[in-house]
Amino acid sequence: MAKLYFRYSTMGAGKSLDLLKTAYNYEERGKFITLLTSSLDNRYGTGKITSRVGISKDAHIFDSSTNLFEFVSEYCFGCDCVLIDESQFLTKEQVWQLTDIVDKLECNVITYGLRSDFKGEPFEGSIYLMTLADKIEELKTICKYGDKASMNMRMVNEIPIFDGDKVMIGGNDSYLPVCRTYYKKMKEKHG
Fold it and tell me: Is 74 exposed, middle or buried (0-12, 13-18, 19+ CB in 10 A)?
């Protein structure tokens, strides 16, 4: 029976690397997969899923207007698994479309994304994935101060900031995974 998975974490936990590893495992067993990533993330080129360790793979892109059920039905019918990077950028409607891919097409869907932004606010896609996914898994990383990281702290010139647009694409240069205690301490100091 097909399932919808949501694998989430903070920045720097290896979400893209885990996705690429999962893709490799499916392909190694002769399975047909489809990779999708948000059009918002073009750090390594449009339509690329790239890990911080340098491994990458081409992917189809989606934006907020993409009907994912129609896309998979038309272009990827019969695939065994749809893997989605940057799933926090999915809309509520798109998450419901993923449930149709699972339930009507009997295709596994594995999504990877952030649970919340740098202000500690949830992303729409993540809210609905937490609500509708059959299985939810946390990919863990540690705060540079030793505890489990649960927050994404935005950095500008190595100084934490707590105001600005919800979406700013960046990597290690722009975000620091931290524990909630350290996040609150820095917000009191710099916020």
Answer: exposed
Model confidence pLDDT, tens digit, residues 5-58: 999 998 888 999 999 999 999 999 999 999 999 998 766 677 899 888 889 999
> Computed from CA positions of residues 118, 120, 121, 127, in that sequence, does the dihedral angle turn out positive or negative?
positive
How far is it, in rounded angstroms, from Cα 129 to Cα 136?
Answer: 8
19 CB neighbour count, 10 Å cutoff? 25
Which residue(s) pair with 7 in the sheet?
112, 137
Residue 103 sits at the vertex; the CA angle it makes with 99 and 104, to the nearest 5 degrees, is 110
Question: Is 86 annotated in the active site?
Answer: yes
Backbone angles phi, psi at 56, to 5 degrees: -145, 165
- Cα radius of gyration (the chain): 17
Amino acid at 140: K
The fold adopted by the segment(s) 4-140 is: Rossmann fold (3.40.50)
Among residues 70, 74, 86, 121, the one annotated as catalytic is 86
pTM of the model: 0.92
What's the CA angle centered on 124, arms 58 and 130, to 5 degrees? 85
